């Protein structure tokens, strides 16, 4: 039990819990709604964007919408988008890597290799930008599905390789060989012997995958791509209207006013970073807790001296070097 | 058998490049066909997807022709900066990664170094866009607060050290951490080997065993990771140039897709530009070739090193 309370896991869980509570109960921290527009301050005749103050701790945007409220109300939509993608990516990758490890089908292997090579020759983010900015996708009513779909494909192509590696490690253990010789079916071996070995890996994959997908969402946000962009073509050009509350939408808006409203992008990025850090801390904590401890081959000087004292012998460092060794 | 497997890898690579070019051609065709429908477009283009696709296939072979001179000039102007970032961060990732990996093993009981380890872990856990944006805007706020309240100064600055070198350091961070983890694990494994334990029990000094045996054995394993390091650097290059305000090859390719620079009236939807197929295709092919060349180089070096070791 003690190893499950390691500092990384505890700090990550506390951070995550804080985000979830403030996302579910945003009114605990702010009295503005994310759509409320503070348009004029009478005492000094100021108009938005307002800098950070007691009234707006993180400032406002050009329309006077409070940044803190938008960040707090954006936690649930951001986690919703990430959860949808994680819930599809992990089972899909798990199923594909299980099939490729156990049955080694040539066709799936060919598709996976091609996808992996495609994302090796050019960065995956470039492929995502190329696909998600197609006019049919940008102006589609099903923009959300495209957004989820493209990120899921990109992530699955990367993640299957990782999962396959871990599954192969388990599959090559001697007891699996024993089970094969005993005449068990491939799926039976997987269910009976491999699954319990893979559980610690899966527990670590979930938070790491959340962190990965949030990173992609953030990067795409800077390029103006987020879930469900709504565009209206008018005589004077294209108007983008969105009531999306996810943090990617804040980043997309903030990247237009980089120096005009620096607080908007700064605090939205900070929130993204803290959430990603929380997931990474949880993943590292789980990995640390489920790790089989290895002995230190070269013990510290203190423990060496203590052991030598107890056994009544001289410690290794005090033994003279025989010339035959060199 | 070996020849057949090399041929299959080459074919898979060609197929991957073909897919990328097809995606770019489709995007170019769709975007440039969509723009004339918008108000105020001066010269609409009337063509079909296949002509775009054929142009995408031909373009890389015509890069030195007279008709492509503008494209070549543009590439010559912007690509060197990307190559500088890639090469600098690659070298830094290996040098700093090896040193950090060694320090991770031998200084693990040092309290001060443990704090350094935690800090580097946190920086590695943060996404690249977070490190960049927080450095940039954090330094902007700091300059405004502590200095002359002048909002012009921020990091990255204007000279080599606080601009290109700083950005290269940011770019090298994830691969550097990867290399250092790898070195740490390899050294710890080597330390448990029988020959090391025997030498140690006979009283040979730590440093002597380390530099004569363990260190050399670890270095051979690092060659296997050169491709992964390169891929990691390439995957963060676009966001680095975009958020770091450096107009290198990756950003130039992005702008050729019809985008504007950061803070310059926004996304593709709000202010769409024309998709410059020749430039995008040439950049994509160049980056793909660079990756393939690098992989071949790593493969050859690995084989050569193995032969030397065996001999």
Describe what this molecule looks like in 3D:
The complex is a heterodimer of chains A (326) and B (311). Mean pLDDT of chain A is 85; it is low at 318-326. Chain A has eleven helices and two strands, in the order H-H-H-H-H-H-H-H-E-E-H-H-H. Chain A is flat, with a radius of gyration of 27 Å. Chain A is mainly α. Chain B has helices spanning 2-34, 49-58, 69-106, 111-125, 128-146, 161-191, 194-201, 206-223, 226-243, 249-256, 277-310. Classes of the chains: A mainly alpha (326), B mainly alpha (311). Chains A and B meet through helix 3, helix 4, helix 5, helix 8 and strand 2 of A and helix 1, helix 4, helix 5, helix 7 and helix 9 of B.
Largest interface comes to: A-B, 68 and 75 residues
Which percent range fits the helix content of chain B?
Answer: over 70%
- Class by SSE composition of chain B: mainly alpha
Number of strands of chain A: 2
- The fraction of residues in strands of chain A falls at under 5%
Alpha plus pi helix count of chain A: 11
Q: Sum up the overall morphology of chain B in one term.
A: flat
Q: Cα-atom Rg of chain B, whole angstroms?
A: 24 Å
Distance between the termini of chain B: 25 Å
| Main pleated-sheet profile of chain A | 2 strands, antiparallel
The general outline of chain A is: flat
Task: Report, as a whole number of angstroms, the end-to-end distance of chain A.
Answer: 47 Å
In the predicted model, the low-confidence regions of chain B spanning at least 5 consecutive residues are none
Relative strand content of chain B: under 5%
Q: Write out the strand line-up for the largest beta sheet of chain A, numbering strands in chain order.
A: 1-2
Regarding quaternary structure, what we see is: heterodimer
Write the element-wise H/E pattern of chain B from the N-terminal end onward. HHHHHHHHHHH
Number of DSSP helices of chain B?
11
How many strands appear in the DSSP assignment of chain B? 0
């Amino acid at each position: 039990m003690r190893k499950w309370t390691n500092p990384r896991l505890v700090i990550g869980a506390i951070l995550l819990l804080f985000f979830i509570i403030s996302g579910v109960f945003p009114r605990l921290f702010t009295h503005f709604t994310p759509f409320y527009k503070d348009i004029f301050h009478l005492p000094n005749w100021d108009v938005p964007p307002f800098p950070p103050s007691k009234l707006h701790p993180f400032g406002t945007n050009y329309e006077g919408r409070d940044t803190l409220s938008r960040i707090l109300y954006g936690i649930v939509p951001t986690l919703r988008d990430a959860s949808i993608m994680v819930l599809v990516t992990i089972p899909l990758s798990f199923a594909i890597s299980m099939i490729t490890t156990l049955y080694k089908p040539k066709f799936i292997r060919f598709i996976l290799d091609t996808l992996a090579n495609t994302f090796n020759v050019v960065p995956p983010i470039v492929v995502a930008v190329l696909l998600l900015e197609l006019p049919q996708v940008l102006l589609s009513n099903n923009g959300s599905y495209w957004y989820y779909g493209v990120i899921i494909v990109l992530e699955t192509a990367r993640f299957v390789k990782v999962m396959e590696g871990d599954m192969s490690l388990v599959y090559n253990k001697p007891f699996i060989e024993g089970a094969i010789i005993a005449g068990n079916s491939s799926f039976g071996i997987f269910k009976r012997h491999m699954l319990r070995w893979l559980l610690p890996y899966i527990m670590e994959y979930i938070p790491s995958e959340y962190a990965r997908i949030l990173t992609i969402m953030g990067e795409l946000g800077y390029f103006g791509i987020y879930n469900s962009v709504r565009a209206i073509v008018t005589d004077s050009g294209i108007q983008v209207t969105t009531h999306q509350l996810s943090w990617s939408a804040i980043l997309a808006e903030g990247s237009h006013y980089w120096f005009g409203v620096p607080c908007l992008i700064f605090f939205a990025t900070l929130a993204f970073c803290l959430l990603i850090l929380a997931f990474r801390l949880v993943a590292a904590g789980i990995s640390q807790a489920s790790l089989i401890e290895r002995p230190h081959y070269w013990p510290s000087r203190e423990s060496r001296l203590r052991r030598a004292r107890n056994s009544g012998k001289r410690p290794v460092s005090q033994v003279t070097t025989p010339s035959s060794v060199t | 058998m070996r020849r057949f497997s090399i041929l299959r890898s080459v074919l898979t690579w060609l197929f991957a490049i073909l897919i990328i070019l097809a995606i770019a051609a489709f995007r170019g065709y769709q975007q440039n066909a969509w723009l004339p429908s918008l108000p105020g477009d001066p010269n609409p283009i009337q063509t079909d997807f296949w002509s775009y696709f054929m142009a995408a296939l031909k373009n890389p072979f015509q890069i030195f022709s007279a008709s492509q001179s503008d494209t070549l000039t543009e590439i010559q102007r912007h690509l060197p900066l990307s190559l500088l970032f890639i090469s600098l961060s690659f070298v830094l990732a290996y040098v700093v990664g090896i040193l950090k990996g060694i320090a991770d093993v031998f200084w693990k009981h040092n309290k001060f170094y443990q704090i350094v380890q935690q800090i580097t872990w946190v920086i590695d856990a943060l996404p690249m866009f977070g490190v960049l944006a927080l450095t940039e805007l954090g330094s902007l706020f700091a300059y405004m607060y502590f200095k002359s309240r002048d909002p012009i100064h921020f990091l990255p600055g204007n000279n080599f050290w606080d601009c290109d070198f700083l950005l290269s350091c940011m770019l090298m961070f994830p691969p550097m951490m990867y290399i250092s983890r790898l070195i740490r694990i390899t050294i710890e494994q080597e330390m448990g080997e029988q020959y090391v334990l025997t030498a140690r029990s006979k009283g040979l000094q730590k440093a002597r065993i380390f530099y004569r045996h363990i260190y050399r054995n670890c270095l051979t394993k690092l060659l296997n990771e050169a491709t992964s390091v390169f891929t990691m650097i390439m995957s963060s290059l676009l966001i680095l140039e975009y958020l770091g305000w450096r107009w290198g090859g990756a950003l130039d390719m992005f702008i050729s897709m019809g985008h504007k620079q950061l803070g310059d009236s926004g996304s593709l939807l709000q202010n769409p530009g024309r998709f410059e197929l020749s430039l995008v295709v040439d950049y994509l092919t160049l980056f793909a070739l660079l990756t393939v060349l690098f992989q071949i180089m790593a493969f050859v070096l690995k084989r050569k090193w193995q032969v030397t070791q065996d001999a």
